[in-house]
Amino acid sequence: MPQRLPVVSSFVNAKGGVGKSTLAVHAAVWHARRGASVVLVDADAQQASSVWLGEVQQPGVQVVPAADAAAVQRAVDAARTHADVVVVDGPAGLSDVTRAALIVTDVAVLPCGASVVDLRAALQAVALVLAARQVRDGRLPVARLVLNRLQPHTLLGQDALEAVRQQPVPACRAVIRQRNALADAAGQGRSVFDMSGSGAADAAADLHALFTELARCQSADQ
Questions:
Q1: Digit-coded pLDDT (tens) for 43-54
Q2: What is the four-CA torsion angle of 62, 64, 65, 70, rounded to 10 degrees?
Q3: Angle at CA of residue 54, ends 216 and 10, nearest 5°
Q4: What gap in Å lies between CA 150 and CA 29, rounded to an integer?
Q5: Which domains, from first to last, does the chain contain?
Q6: Radius of gyration of the chain from Cα atoms?
Q7: What is the pLDDT, as a whole number, of residue 60?
Q8: What is the pLDDT of residue 2?
Q9: Tens of pLDDT, residues 171-193
Q10: Contact, 40 vs 65, CB < 8 A?
């Protein structure tokens, strides 16, 4: 049976370059390889995930570009009728498109780099998540911070781990460590699940742990 949770997950942040598209593309591939039918709604103006998935050509993944807030809502509403999993690759910034994604999402994933600037940007997105809850049922979207490109054995990495644990939104226990394979995957038009070498295997293991955790958290009590 395919994993059906989260039904809709959106990767959002106030800052670009924090790994939203990387995580969104790999989430789509990961779910598809577990038997789910997946729609990825590409709401990023650069359409990076659309190009990347076009090269990956993963069976079971449909890509739907969405240029504005109304298009995001239409795409998600349509995908809910036939897909097991919907992944939204949000734009950089807290635009109307991001707000639209959060209004229809079940789990908001907030990638955060290991720096003060990245954490501040993620917290701006947290405020938008909380605002979305006010216009819904007070519980959804569930939100999770995800530490990305972490170097855990450095002082900066340890500081980042401590900082995210003190935020108003829970941080995932799974973290994505700095790996060259993840940085190279888009340029190769592949996912790390298809790349060779220990670095790719380690990156794939990090992603597997993250997506498994996210798939379980939709009904988590906030």
A1: 998 999 999 999
A2: -160
A3: 30
A4: 22
A5: 8-216 (3.40.50.300)
A6: 16
A7: 97
A8: 45
A9: 899 999 999 999 999 999 999 99
A10: no
Using alpha carbons, select from 150, 146, 160, 158 the residue that is nearest to residue 211: 146
Q: Which two structure tokens, joined as six digits, stand for 137?
A: 């049922």
Quick one: 7 exposed, middle or buried, by C-beta within 10 A (0-12, 13-18, 19+)?
middle
Other Cβ atoms closer than 10 A to 158:
14
Look at residue 219 in the predicted model and tell me its pLDDT: 47
Q: CB-side exposure of 101: number of CA atoms within 13 Å?
A: 34
Round to whole Å and give the CA distance between 51 and 29.
Answer: 14
Residues forming beta bridges with residue 87, ordered by sequence position: 9, 40
Residue 196: HSE in the Cβ half-sphere, 13 Å Cα cutoff: 0
Helix ranges (H only) for the chain are 20-32, 48-56, 69-80, 96-104, 116-134, 155-165, 180-188, 198-216
Q: What is the pLDDT of residues 98-154, one digit of tens each?
A: 999 999 999 999 998 777 777 778 888 888 999 999 988 788 899 999 988 877 766
pTM across the whole model: 0.91
* Token pair in block for residue 206: 């990090």
CA distance readout (Å), 65 to 45, 49, 89, 157: 9, 9, 10, 35
The encoded tokens of residue 39 equal 């729609």
69 token code pair: 């807030």
Please provide the average confidence, as pLDDT, over all residues in the chain. Answer: 88
